[in-house]
């Protein structure tokens, strides 16, 4: 499937950002070369298939996504066609087995998110919701019937999903959610969902909404697949949230449910409590940890190009200045460490050895370091950074959001702190 | 003048951000109170007049400016009426003597910029250009005729100015500028100005443009007051620069001069070289050092309010969490240190004891610390920070720009480094 | 008294660290000069008397203390003669009124601590204990008889004191102290003190030990002046604590009390609870906030000298490198801000307007910034920093301790956090 | 050889620091466990042999080295028996092939350095010099005769070596070295070495001194193996450098050569210029990158134990405080990332794919992060940190030195900057 997809994108990848490859520094013999774009040679850890998938994804993203993002971000507009295109390329739910999904490794899946986020964290968010949160959740917890009904068309990007967990008053603490499901008073085999979810990526365009709510009788959290086309008028609203100062190329909204009837056949049969949504989030966080490295790498490449082209003081490229070089070095270092860690935990996941704390650890660190370095690299652009055409301001604004969602950085530090000390310190 | 102005703004200052004043911590007797909004009691350093001016400015800004800024920032629109209103209140060029200016202290002038930047750095930028760069420059270097011609209407905000120094290829190194003034081939007493200036706040709306250019014959930099109304068609263009990712409530543009005829009567009579623009910049940087503290203080006040109102985990306000309190403490500390330093250098300036290095020092430090702390405070808002209604994202984006303009932070560190070591390290 | 003292130190102050004063950077006219040793011209805020006191103290410290400190630190030896010498110069308890004390301003007193800590934080600690904690405590809470009995000889450095509050298990939380005072079973007007205090500067050499203990009957904390000469054998031990990795030029020990009889005449008559020791600590913290700036300034001066003398790569002084200059600039900035804040709070204190939170604020910030910058400056010395003759390693080790004592940095951030939010977050 | 060695250390490893292993946080089923001592499960990347070697080394270090280090550090004394013991265990030059060396992987070799530096960076330095710099250099550049003559007894720790590159005036820039080798005026096949080397670990106790000097005739740098026993009196002095403030458990000295005759048979036959010493340094830096993670891990373990045992405020262990947990989380994160990167580059090295820039990158980052986190963890100990029995102060002091030697951190950032931009910025 990837080969086919790859062939469709026949134009060469834009390489303008990759100019001026420096000569090997102090080597005279033909030894290994240092590659500033992959300083720790993480490519050596990838399989042929993973390299091919990465290449396909990068080509698609640079050729098809990149040209759209500047205007999309300005207009706060999300082009849902992107998900369809990604579906055609087999990039959605790629690490899932069966039901029309590619069944690739977690690393391969992570490389796709990196390619997408190299363009924009908002585009990656849109894809993460579809792939990790919704498709991943259905794959993990859905009945066979549910999987067969939803996954194939979601994999193709023909059916879009969203994930409704966060509520206006309950962000870091989803266990206190207020959304409820109560038995339908008249229609057997149905429940009525009520409640409000907010900061829901893709909610305004979603066909199927995975909503987590407490059973009124038991207080237990259960997951429901709400199909928009089946909701009576007035029972489901998904107003968009506008005027965001980050992730503007993704669409975000609320989910407002008012006695919305949902058949029990659309409830996940077994999973109960927070382990359901937390499993989905773990998968998504894995993707974020990989993805943000793509955004950071793009910042680095752009800052490097700018520093080589921009001349000040006796016509020197500012890349010659120590204070500039240090910023580039720091960023390259953190990017390479972050990619390495993401690969490691992905491999562990595929071997059944990953724990949620590991994912907290790399999600936090990679988001934090991506943000810190992106901000530092932004300084290289001086006053010019304020122009959105240099893209780095967009990455900086996006990366701040990635630091706060799916577990704000401090919360993950306390999750780790609990794992290290055995004592929880949330309250 | 200020008293009159004050009376016009009779509505009470919005106090929603100032709720929940905590009780004195561990004092039983009636001693002095700690004020988190002025932790080092810098108010004790102000004169009665300065306090009154500050109050007038704060009231105007909170009542009249604040309600406009959210939409203005969204729309990237600058309301030039603001300068007229400020002129009516006597807030423009306030620290200049004569020519219709208020002649207040540098501290008082700084308190005005702090009040304005508490609302928005873009509004402060618009004012700084008018007050410090243009009016300040005319006051310092203009002939008596020039002062009389321009200053009174500029002080009233009826004539708007802009300051043209930075060029597309020469930011940190203005000495390499390419704009030139050559003798008019036919019209005696005139020069023809050519060249391009960029990132010029207010250029699209300016009536008078202070342009720095090199005399073709001597290579010496001179300053010119270009009056838009007198420029023949095609000799002056001031296209706006759109799609900024910060300072969106201010208007920025280019200045494109193509053999624009300017009478020598509009050239500053004596000042030559970079000491002219640098003097203007010093005055503006003084204002920035004061101003950014206002932005930081607003971030602190908003973050504090949010932390007191937002509840997570067993319904605790997040203000109870150590990681949140540390962010608030750090910000309050840096804000109070920064205000203190700004007052000190302002006083020195009025006594003729300030040096440019001192202003570099406080401009750099206050911008850096305002930015760092604003970003940290932004974390308190978690995912909600992405909504522009919380304002903090706007401050963060703005403060990054203040760090880069009128001397990027690193450049100021090298200016200081040169002053400390006697060795310059720019190249 | 100061003039006399000054005359005794007639040798010129060693000026080796003050070489290579750079020329004024870009000024052609004779304007004010930038002084890298006082970047914000804080000297302009001092009175003639304060300047004279500062000069006396600096001269004494550079001439008499500095030559001793290297060996003292190596040997972990405290020369108690230093306190006698300081007493002769009138430098002990200098800001107290009457009883043989100089009665100078809090600023003057702070300038003394700055001069001492420019040499070594351990020497300053020894002085702070004598001046602020013990003499200050007696002055504030002692009966007239107590003041007359202790203060004059303490001011002369003939009687040494120490301050016993911290216990082995109660550092940040002194309210949980376990030391007790119970009525003497047989001797009227006496109590028996029992308990252990630790990390007590000067305890092994103290003649009078101010010990805080809980009255057995009431549980209320009271303060006692334990005179070593009157303690029966076996009731008071003050073993030194050796092998410290910082403050090695000061002497630290424990206080072990075992039914030590103390007359009630040696108990502070009125003060009860933690307000007593906290008042003493506030005064000492004020001194620390001033003092650590001296240590930082010494680090800066030494790093600057080293950077000007050390040559690498084509024989350039390393002071020419941007990465070095930035470290110097950062340190100079923080030092000047810190001094300014210390002066401000000192003035407020003398006017009765200072609050404990203000002192927490500047104690924390100045200690933190002194430490951070000292560490960064240490990098300039490269591998040579490991030699103790460059002194900077000693300052770094000392400054870490100042960050932890008299309120560890995080604790002060929570004290501030409580003052800002009204919510305490210690537990 | 390792199995034998392992059997000799039959006592159980001290486990006092590993108490209080927390239960798995939010897992109900028996899944993989999070191990705070190896958060990213890097053990899964090791071979059986590597795990066994690591275990042997850790056991030896904890059982035999750890009990010695406190006193050694106090006394600034290096026990050369340690190298003999390590030789007996096969831990010296372990990654070299033949000549009595174990021929293990670079990862295994790195695990040994990690085990040693978990005890003390000075002990690791002593071993690095022997193993990487001297044995590694002889193995890489020596003639067969040289290898056979030196390596076997060095591997056994019976012959000690040191590495003489750095000179008093040439640290970061060894190419400017002043040491020279000139033809012996009378003795054919000999040169006379003159010059001074400083900060040479092990120089006072070395039997063989690898000295780099410039050939007087050509100016080319060559390497010499100076055998102390063959040096005429007065031609070689190796005075120790005392009073270091870090790495006090290692011995450091100078090398002073005054027309010291050395046979050309002791010169490396082929290598010329800086590629010789740089190759040695690369190998040593690889070990440092691994080693410092051991020191950081020890700091983390100790800080965690302290935080669990120390109680303040209502008898809560301070491990419950958010500000403490964040410090632990940060350290665990950086330690795990650093180990991962060290393993990756080690594997690349064994595959012939590592470049010097990669080693610069991980040496810099791991040293920097180890230092930063060790300092932060030190704060957890509050005032108690000043006692050397808590060990963390020793690690902090040591780690600062590791940051400065074998390429100061800033220099490595410029090496990376050059590799990224193609422009060198050293001068």
UniProtKB/TrEMBL annotation, chains A, B, C, D:
<dbReference type="InterPro" id="IPR046373">
    <property type="entry name" value="Acyl-CoA_Oxase/DH_mid-dom_sf"/>
</dbReference>
<dbReference type="Pfam" id="PF02770">
    <property type="entry name" value="Acyl-CoA_dh_M"/>
</dbReference>
<dbReference type="InterPro" id="IPR009075">
    <property type="entry name" value="AcylCo_DH/oxidase_C"/>
</dbReference>
<feature type="domain" description="Acyl-CoA dehydrogenase/oxidase N-terminal">
    <location>
        <begin position="47"/>
        <end position="158"/>
    </location>
</feature>
<comment type="pathway">
    <text>Amino-acid metabolism; tryptophan metabolism.</text>
</comment>
<keyword id="KW-0560">Oxidoreductase</keyword>
<dbReference type="GO" id="GO:0046949">
    <property type="term" value="P:fatty-acyl-CoA biosynthetic process"/>
</dbReference>
<comment type="similarity">
    <text>Belongs to the acyl-CoA dehydrogenase family.</text>
</comment>
<dbReference type="InterPro" id="IPR052033">
    <property type="entry name" value="Glutaryl-CoA_DH_mitochondrial"/>
</dbReference>
<dbReference type="InterPro" id="IPR036250">
    <property type="entry name" value="AcylCo_DH-like_C"/>
</dbReference>
<dbReference type="Pfam" id="PF00441">
    <property type="entry name" value="Acyl-CoA_dh_1"/>
</dbReference>
<feature type="domain" description="Acyl-CoA dehydrogenase/oxidase C-terminal">
    <location>
        <begin position="279"/>
        <end position="420"/>
    </location>
</feature>
<dbReference type="InterPro" id="IPR013786">
    <property type="entry name" value="AcylCoA_DH/ox_N"/>
</dbReference>
<dbReference type="InterPro" id="IPR009100">
    <property type="entry name" value="AcylCoA_DH/oxidase_NM_dom_sf"/>
</dbReference>
<keyword id="KW-0496">Mitochondrion</keyword>
<feature type="domain" description="Acyl-CoA oxidase/dehydrogenase middle">
    <location>
        <begin position="162"/>
        <end position="260"/>
    </location>
</feature>
<dbReference type="GO" id="GO:0033539">
    <property type="term" value="P:fatty acid beta-oxidation using acyl-CoA dehydrogenase"/>
</dbReference>
<dbReference type="Pfam" id="PF02771">
    <property type="entry name" value="Acyl-CoA_dh_N"/>
</dbReference>
<dbReference type="InterPro" id="IPR037069">
    <property type="entry name" value="AcylCoA_DH/ox_N_sf"/>
</dbReference>
<dbReference type="GO" id="GO:0000062">
    <property type="term" value="F:fatty-acyl-CoA binding"/>
</dbReference>
<dbReference type="GO" id="GO:0005743">
    <property type="term" value="C:mitochondrial inner membrane"/>
</dbReference>
<dbReference type="InterPro" id="IPR006091">
    <property type="entry name" value="Acyl-CoA_Oxase/DH_mid-dom"/>
</dbReference>
<keyword id="KW-0809">Transit peptide</keyword>
<dbReference type="GO" id="GO:0005759">
    <property type="term" value="C:mitochondrial matrix"/>
</dbReference>
<dbReference type="GO" id="GO:0004361">
    <property type="term" value="F:glutaryl-CoA dehydrogenase activity"/>
</dbReference>
<keyword id="KW-0274">FAD</keyword>
<keyword id="KW-0285">Flavoprotein</keyword>
<comment type="pathway">
    <text>Amino-acid metabolism; lysine degradation.</text>
</comment>
<dbReference type="GO" id="GO:0050660">
    <property type="term" value="F:flavin adenine dinucleotide binding"/>
</dbReference>
<protein>
    <recommendedName>
        <fullName>glutaryl-CoA dehydrogenase (ETF)</fullName>
        <ecNumber>1.3.8.6</ecNumber>
    </recommendedName>
</protein>
């Amino acid at each position: 499937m990837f080969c086919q997809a790859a062939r469709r994108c026949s134009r060469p990848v834009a390489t303008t950002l990759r100019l001026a490859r420096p000569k090997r520094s102090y080597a005279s013999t033909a030894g290994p070369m240092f590659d500033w774009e992959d300083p720790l040679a993480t490519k050596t850890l990838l399989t042929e298939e993973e390299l091919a998938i990465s290449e396909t994804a990068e080509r698609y993203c640079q050729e098809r996504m990149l040209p759209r993002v500047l205007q999309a971000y300005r207009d706060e507009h999300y082009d849902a066609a992107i998900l369809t295109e990604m579906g055609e390329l087999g990039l959605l739910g790629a690490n899932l087995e069966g039901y029309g999904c590619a069944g690739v490794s977690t690393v391969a899946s992570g490389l796709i998110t990196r390619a997408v986020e190299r363009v924009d964290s908002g585009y990656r968010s849109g894809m993460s919701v579809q792939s990790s949160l919704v498709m991943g959740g259905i794959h993990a917890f859905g009945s066979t019937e549910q999987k067969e009904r939803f996954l194939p068309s979601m994999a193709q990007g023909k059916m879009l999903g969203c994930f409704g967990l966060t509520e206006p008053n309950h962000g870091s603490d989803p266990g206190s959610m207020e959304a409820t499901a109560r038995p339908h008073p008249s229609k057997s085999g149905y429940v009525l969902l009520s409640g409000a979810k907010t900061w829901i990526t893709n909610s305004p365009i979603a066909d199927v909404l995975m909503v987590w709510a407490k059973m009124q009788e038991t207080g237990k959290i259960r997951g429901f697949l709400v199909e928009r086309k089946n909701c009576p008028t007035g029972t489901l609203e998904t107003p968009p949230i506008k005027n965001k100062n980050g992730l503007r190329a993704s669409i975000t909204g609320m989910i407002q449910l008012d006695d919305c009837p949902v058949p029990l056949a659309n409830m996940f049969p077994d999973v109960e409590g927070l382990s359901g949504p937390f499993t989905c989030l773990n998968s998504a966080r894995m993707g974020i940890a990989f993805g943000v490295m793509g955004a950071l790498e793009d910042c680095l490449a752009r800052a490097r190009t700018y520093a080589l082209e921009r001349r000040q003081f006796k016509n020197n490229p500012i890349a010659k200045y120590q204070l500039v070089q240090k910023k580039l070095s720091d960023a390259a270092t953190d990017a390479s460490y972050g990619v390495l860690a993401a690969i490691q935990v992905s491999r562990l996941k595929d071997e059944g050895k990953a724990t949620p704390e590991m994912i907290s650890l790399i999600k936090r660190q990679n988001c934090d370091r991506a943000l810190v370095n992106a901000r530092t690299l932004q300084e290289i652009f001086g006053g010019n950074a304020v122009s959105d055409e240099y893209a780095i301001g967009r990455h900086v604004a996006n990366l701040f959001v990635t630091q706060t969602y799916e577990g704000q950085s401090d919360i993950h530090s306390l999750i780790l702190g609990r794992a290290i000390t055995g004592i929880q310190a949330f309250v």
